[in-house]
């Protein structure tokens, strides 16, 4: 049976001549045919084209290759054609050059395909780099003769960048966020607020959203390290309807050069509605004045026993939303480098965590982040994220006290750069503004003599620990209320309780 099939196949083979195909391999040097004089040579190529294609090669960086296709001239000289050689020169930061030679498996019997149409071939190879100019030259073999013209046909090809539908699959582009779909939606909540929603990427943890029509009218930073849908409300200083939202991601491999995305601000479906936290606060604030007279009336009407039970329940009920609001408050602690870290900073940190329901941000714990972001950016970001900024001062300078507390990062000998003067200078303008002053506090452990260098700190509320511990905690936990300056102004006596 199989023998019959085999002979049948052999018969077919004999009857229909096989159509030529190509077999390509690299050929760096000159072709062997070049050394020999040929009297009869094939003509030029008719056409040469290049396009990038996504290949199925496993190594990701070579996932985009050139699809080089060419058309043979339909003339009698095609009978002498043995091969076509293609050379590619790439010009970007460095120059690359390589050639392939594609042998035709059969001699050409006809000027066109048996099925009609010109002879067309394509070769997929030559990795394509981003934004690179390529010169692609091709010539037929055997070529005219030794002193003949060079490549018979050449084209230029400039590879596109990461936004191209094929190039976006390059590893470098994927790392820069080419496959990230932020799906930005933005709407104008009111004259002062724009709400921007977008999907974050696990590739990075920081984003900047910019609202601009002609000029920048609003800006906000978003910190998020997982893939999730986030929402940010950005205050704006101009007409935002129709404005552009530009989202700049800061991914690990591309830093500030990542692919930026855009969206358009439209009107929110329900304009005028304020954000949920404001809402709940205003509801509570609005109802309390009405509830109090009602309670008074109730005292007259109801018997004392019933009243007491009722009030008990009332207190129970109202206390629930308050406890729900008790999220930890973020505190950025800055301290001069001469301060005794282990004894003072750690002690203070533990005190904040255990007694003042605080989440503490310390430079010592975020060394890596500071190195990545730069100290100014880090301080600015942390200041924004924090509910309170505490300048921790102490005269308790001791050479043998350095050490680490809590988180493992940072060793005693790793000399930390002193962020204190930087923080002081960076936040100094806030200290002059009543609107921002409430965010700052000064804490002493020994004596209340602010060094002359930090005069501006005199305007901040000051506390001497542990003496003022209770007042300090109360103040800290009432971050929402803008406490009038100077009210908490206390002289810290020379002998604060020892640590
Ligand atoms: C193409 O033909 C040349 C000359 O016959 C030979 O040296 C070369 O190895 C061939 N290349 C391939 C890929 O078959
Ligand atoms: C390469 O280009 C040729 C000619 O345009 C086309 O027929 C072929 O499908 C392309 N190959 C791939 C993998 O895209
Ligand atoms: C290719 O680019 C080079 C340099 O820019 C230019 O001199 C040449 O004319 C271009 N060739 C084609 C075919 O466009
Ligand atoms: C983009 O987000 C909108 C609103 O959340 C959603 O309806 C839509 O399906 C999302 N589109 C894509 C492509 O994820
Ligand atoms: C953003 O997301 C929030 C919560 O899912 C939703 O209420 C709001 O309508 C969204 N806004 C926009 C502009 O998509
Ligand atoms: C941009 O905002 C400014 C300030 O509100 C406004 O006067 C201007 O018309 C806006 N431009 C566009 C193009 O919307």
From TrEMBL:
Keyword tRNA processing part of the UniProt annotation: no
GO cellular component, one term: extracellular region
Broad class of where this protein is predominantly found: membrane
Domain spans labelled SEFIR: 328-474
Gene Ontology annotations of biological process type: positive regulation of inflammatory response; positive regulation of interleukin-13 production; positive regulation of interleukin-5 production
Annotated signal sequence range: 1-17
Assembly and binders: Interacts with DAZAP2. Interacts with TRAF3IP2.
InterPro entries the record matches: IL-17_rcpt-like, IL17R_A/B_N, IL17RA/B_FnIII-like_1_sf, IL17RA/B_FnIII-like_2_sf, SEFIR_dom
Localization, UniProt: Cell membrane; Secreted
Transmembrane segments: 287-310
Protein name per its UniProtKB record: Interleukin-17 receptor B
Pfam families membership: IL17R_fnIII_D1, IL17R_fnIII_D2, SEFIR
Lineage: superkingdom: Eukaryota
Membrane topology recorded in Swiss-Prot or TrEMBL: Single-pass type I membrane protein
Chain's role: Receptor for the pro-inflammatory cytokines IL17B and IL17E. May play a role in controlling the growth and/or differentiation of hematopoietic cells.
GO MF annotations in UniProt: interleukin-17 receptor activity
Species this protein is from: Equus asinus (Donkey)
Keywords annotated in UniProt: Cell membrane, Glycoprotein, Membrane, Receptor, Secreted, Signal, Transmembrane, Transmembrane helix
């Amino acid at each position: 049976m199989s023998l019959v099939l085999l002979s049948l196949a052999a018969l077919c083979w004999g009857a229909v001549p096989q159509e030529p195909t190509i077999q390509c391999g690299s050929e760096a040097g000159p072709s062997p045919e070049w050394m020999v004089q040929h009297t009869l040579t094939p003509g030029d190529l008719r056409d040469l084209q290049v396009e990038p294609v996504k290949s199925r090669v496993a190594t990701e960086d070579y996932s985009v290759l050139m699809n080089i296709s060419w058309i043979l001239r339909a003339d009698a000289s095609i009978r002498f054609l043995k091969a076509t050689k293609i050379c590619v020169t790439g010009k970007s930061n460095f120059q690359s050059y390589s050639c392939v030679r594609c042998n035709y498996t059969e001699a050409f019997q006809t000027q066109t395909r048996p099925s009609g149409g010109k002879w067309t071939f394509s070769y997929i190879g030559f990795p394509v780099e981003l934004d690179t100019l390529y010169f692609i030259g091709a010539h037929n073999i055997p070529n005219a003769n030794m002193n003949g013209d060079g490549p018979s046909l050449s084209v230029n090809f400039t590879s596109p960048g990461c936004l191209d539908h094929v190039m976006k699959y390059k590893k470098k582009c994927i790392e820069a966020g080419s496959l990230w779909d932020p799906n930005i939606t933005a709407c104008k909540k009111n004259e002062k607020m724009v709400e921007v929603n977008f999907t974050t990427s696990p590739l990075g943890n920081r984003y900047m959203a910019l609202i601009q029509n002609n000029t920048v009218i609003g800006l906000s930073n978003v910190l998020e390290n997982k893939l999730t849908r986030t929402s940010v409300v950005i205050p704006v200083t101009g007409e935002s309807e129709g404005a552009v939202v530009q989202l700049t991601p800061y991914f690990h491999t591309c830093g500030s050069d990542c692919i930026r995305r855009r969206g358009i601000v439209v009107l929110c479906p329900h304009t005028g509605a304020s954000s949920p936290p404001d809402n709940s606060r205003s509801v509570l604030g609005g109802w309390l004045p009405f509830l109090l007279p009602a309670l008074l009336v109730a005292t007259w009407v109801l018997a004392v026993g019933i009243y007491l039970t009722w009030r008990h329940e009332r207190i129970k009920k109202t206390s629930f939303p308050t406890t729900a609001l008790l999220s930890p408050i973020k505190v950025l602690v800055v301290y001069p480098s001469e301060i005794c870290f282990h004894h003072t900073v750690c002690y203070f940190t533990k005190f904040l965590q255990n007694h003042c329901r605080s989440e503490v941000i310390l430079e010592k714990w975020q060394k890596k982040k500071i190195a990545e972001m730069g100290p100014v950016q880090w301080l600015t970001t942390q200041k924004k994220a924090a509910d309170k900024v505490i300048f921790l001062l102490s005269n308790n300078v001791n050479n043998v006290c350095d050490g680490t507390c809590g988180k493992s990062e940072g060793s005693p000998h790793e000399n930390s750069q002193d962020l204190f003067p930087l923080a002081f200078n960076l936040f100094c303008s806030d200290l002059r503004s009543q609107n921002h002053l409430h965010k700052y506090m000064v804490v002493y452990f020994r004596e209340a003599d602010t060094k002359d260098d930090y005069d501006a700190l005199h305007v901040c509320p000051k506390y001497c620990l542990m003496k003022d511990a209770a007042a300090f905690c109360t103040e800290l936990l009432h971050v929402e209320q803008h406490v009038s300056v100077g009210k908490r102004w206390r002289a810290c006596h020379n002998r604060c309780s020892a640590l």
